[in-house]
Amino acid sequence: MTDFRALLTTLHVKRVEFIIVGGAAAVAHGSVRLTYDLDIVYRRTPENIARLVEALAPVHPYLRGVPPGLPFQWDAESLHRGLNFTLVTDIGDIDVLGEITGGGGYEDLLPHSIVLNLFETASPCLNLNKLIQVKRAAGRVKDFEAVAELEVIAEETGEDLE
């Protein structure tokens, strides 16, 4: 079970620059769908990558869905060489994404983010309009189902969809 509060606190304490996307962002906007991991898009600067590595190192990140024992080093070099990582940690699953389909990277998404109070922490989250766009772009059945619910939420909250 993912401890969303603990993961967000871990990232905030180390001042990691990130934006919540995916199912967790949908829940933050009022979705009733279950999500099992925290999806974030992180700023890919050397300083932020170092903070991200430092933040997650104590909770032992490891690649999710790979055979146990596969060599994996959680360090800045790995993040520099890679882009998107689906991880399991001692406090739950987190997807650490350099970019997302239909949205791009941190710099692209920042103008489309808002700060929401999640677990008593100011957390940057993709706005509802952009979340709908990236879910649609992802093209998976579960994302299309989520889009339908998010559009209803947008209508109920008066969110202007482009």
Task: Describe this protein's structure.
It is a single chain. With 162 residues, the protein is an alpha+beta fold. It contains seven helices and nine strands; from the N terminus they run αβαβαβαββββαββαα. It has helices at 4-13, 22-28, 46-56, 76-81, 106-109, 128-138, 141-157, and strands at residues 18-21, 37-42, 62-63, 84-89, 92-97, 99-100, 104-105, 113-118, 121-126. It has a five-stranded mixed beta sheet. A two-stranded antiparallel sheet has the order 6-7. A two-stranded antiparallel ribbon has the order 8-9. The longest helix has 17 residues, at 141-157. The protein starts with a helix and ends in a 5-residue tail after the last helix.
Short description:
The protein is an alpha+beta fold. It has 7 helices and 9 strands.
Radius of gyration, whole Å: 15 Å
Going across the biggest sheet, name each strand in turn: 1-2-5-4-3
Q: Would you identify the regions where 5 or more consecutive residues have pLDDT less than 50?
A: none
The best one-word shape is globular
Residue fraction in strands: 15-25%
Number of helices: 7
Number of strands: 9
Fraction of residues in H or I helices = 40-55%
What kind of oligomer do you see? single chain
Series of secondary-structure elements, N-terminal to C-terminal:
HEHEHEHEEEEHEEHH
Distance between the termini: 35 Å
> Which sheet architecture does the biggest sheet show?
5 strands, mixed
Overall mean pLDDT: 94
Output the structural class: alpha+beta
